[in-house]
Amino acid sequence: MSVRVVVADDQAISRQGLRMILESGEGIEVIGEAIDGLDALGQVERRRPDIVLMDIRMPRMDGLEATRRLRDVDGVQVIVITTFDLDEYVIEALRAGAVGFLVKDSPRERIVEAVHAVARGDALISPEVTRRLLGRFVANAPARAGDPRLAELTPREHDVLLELSAGNSNAAIAARLHLEESTVKGHVRRLLAKLGLANRVQAVIFAYETGLVVPGTTQEE
Which residues, at least 6 apart from 115, have a Cβ–Cβ distance to it below 8 Å? Predict the structure, then answer.
């Protein structure tokens, strides 16, 4: 089945360009266009897409606020796409609940792959960007002790959480832990439920905030 996408951008030429890029990729259907964040909420309610490609700067309601409101909508993921590759935008988008971040001048192949990656259940944040941005975010955040919810995780779920914190995809985690990719997806789903988190990006932030991962460190090969 095709991945169903709504494109939200206040500029008509940007919406049209993104539609053309997405529809040039196999297995993607653009089912709606929204002119701002408020319109995006309505499009999601009416059309039930799998993914919203969301601009940040829009009138009436910006993309960050719309992303926050979509965070608890089952089955819908948000990829933020913007002209500005600024750390503060990335961090705010992740905190709002986005599972990916792109700049509008990304290669078209990158944009298409982003949609497929998120549809597969992966977060669209590279390991390098994950470590850089979340390291900065946590360095400026109040210190927190270990969270008691960590005790609810099985040893394997704990391992998967560590791999998520390094920005690894499900396929990469499966290879590193010698598991089937479907098994990894199951572990991710269960650990998110136990931790009360909406998506894998929030799991990464949780790992840094609770001191499970120390900024500047990487997982051993």
Answer: 3, 5, 22, 25, 28, 51, 53, 79
Picking from 2, 98, 114, the residue whose alpha carbon sits closest to that of residue 50 is 2
Q: Does the predicted TM-score (pTM) go above 0.85?
A: no
CATH 1.10.10.10 fits 134-209, yes or no: yes
| Distance, CA of 11 to CA of 55 (rounded, Å) | 10
Residue among 135, 155, 99 at smallest CA distance from 211 = 135
Token pair 């955040």 is found at 141
pLDDT in tens, 6-28: 999 999 999 999 999 999 988 99
* Both structure tokens of 169: 């995809």
Q: What is the pLDDT of residue 62?
A: 93
- Are 47 and 31 in contact, with CB atoms under 8 Å apart? yes
Residue 170 tokens, joined: 């499900």
Name 5's bridge partners.
30, 51
d(CA 195, CA 152): 8
**Side-chain half-sphere exposure of 25, counting CA atoms within 13 A:** 23
CATH architecture of 3-124: 3-Layer(aba) Sandwich (3.40)
pLDDT tens-digit profile of 38-60?
999 999 999 999 999 999 989 99
* Delimiting residues of CATH 1.10.10.10 domain(s) in the chain: 134-209
**Residue whose structure tokens are 């988190």:** 197
For residue 210 the two structure tokens come to 């609770």
